[in-house]
């Protein structure tokens, strides 16, 4: 089978060979491997000494295969046509030569093996992709809420739970996303969700959001449509952010500006305001 580095093929399993070697390795640039990759035909051990392209075959690799009793090499081609493995067979127990029917059967078997290998790799790639997506999903500093087309929550990240004061995802999944928005702003939220479905996204909008205990906090929410591989909408993904601290700073700034304005207006004494460079404003 092809190694993870894709630089060589290594024996991973054997049965019935005369002397199976636990670490037989064929380089990817080996004439045998290149010939099977190029032609995709079954090759017999006798042909190794006949086919011109195989005359430069490494003596070490050739001896290893001969000691194993290898008689037939069946290429296993991946879905894109690349060689992903070789099915190596010893001689038949009957000591007869492999027939045309045997060759057809082995070709069908190698195709099935290739399909199984492809499926296994696709599954592993999908699993790795899902794990990367999950890590990214959880690493985001904003809250993430995923819903179906009925506005029912199907997924959230840890930041969303923390922001809204929930202890576990089970407390959130299956609920309407509007349950996390203050009742007096739900109509606005429903209208904006409808706009999201119509246009594909909606700009970030401020809402009064709800915690698990019913208390309110200021937040922002933006949403986009989730689509399947055919481009059909399957749900929404909403990004939420707690803006309590920003609102506190804005309030403090307004109070400061109001105080300064009042001070300038009501002071009985002249007040001189300077810029940072000491020039008069």
Automatic annotation (TrEMBL):
One Gene Ontology MF term: protein histidine kinase activity
Domain (PAC): residue spans on this chain: 203-255
The alphabetical list of record keywords is: Kinase, Phosphoprotein, Transferase
Q: Which Pfam family is an annotated match for this chain, by its short name?
A: GAF_2
EC number(s) reported in the record? 2.7.13.3
Q: Spell out the InterPro entries in the cross-references.
A: GAF, GAF-like_dom_sf, PAC, PAS, PAS-assoc_C, PAS-like_dom_sf, Sensor_kinase/Photoreceptor
Transmembrane parts of this sequence: none
Q: What class of enzyme is it?
A: transferase
Protein name, per record: histidine kinase
Name the species this protein comes from. Answer: marine sediment metagenome
What lineage does UniProt assign to this protein's organism?
Answer: unclassified sequences, metagenomes, ecological metagenomes
């Amino acid at each position: 089978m092809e190694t993870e580095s894709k630089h060589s093929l290594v024996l991973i399993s054997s049965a019935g060979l005369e002397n199976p070697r636990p670490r037989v390795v064929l380089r990817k640039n080996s004439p045998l491997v290149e010939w099977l990759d190029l032609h995709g035909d079954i090759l017999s051990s006798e042909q190794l000494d006949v086919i011109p392209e195989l005359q430069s075959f490494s003596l070490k690799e050739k001896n290893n295969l001969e000691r194993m009793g290898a008689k037939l090499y069946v290429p296993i081609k991946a879905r894109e046509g690349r060689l992903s493995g070789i099915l190596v067979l010893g001689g038949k127990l009957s000591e007869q030569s492999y027939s045309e029917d045997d060759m057809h059967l082995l070709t069908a078997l190698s195709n099935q093996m290739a399909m199984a290998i492809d499926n296994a790799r696709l599954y592993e790639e999908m699993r790795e992709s899902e794990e990367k997506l999950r890590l990214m999903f959880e690493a985001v500093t904003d809250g993430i809420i995923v819903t179906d087309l009925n506005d029912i929550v199907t997924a959230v990240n840890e930041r969303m739970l923390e922001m809204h004061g929930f202890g576990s995802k089970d407390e959130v999944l299956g609920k309407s996303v509007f349950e996390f928005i203050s009742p007096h702003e739900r109509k606005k939220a429903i209208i904006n969700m409808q706009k999201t479905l119509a246009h594909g996204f909606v700009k970030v909008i401020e809402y009064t959001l709800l915690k698990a205990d019913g208390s309110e906090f200021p937040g922002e929410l933006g949403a986009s449509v989730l689509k399947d591989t055919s481009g059909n909408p399957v749900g929404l993904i909403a990004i939420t952010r707690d803006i309590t601290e920003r609102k506190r700073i804005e309030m403090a700034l307004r109070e400061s500006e109001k105080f300064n304005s009042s001070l300038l207006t009501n002071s009985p004494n002249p007040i001189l305001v300077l810029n940072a460079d000491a020039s008069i404003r």
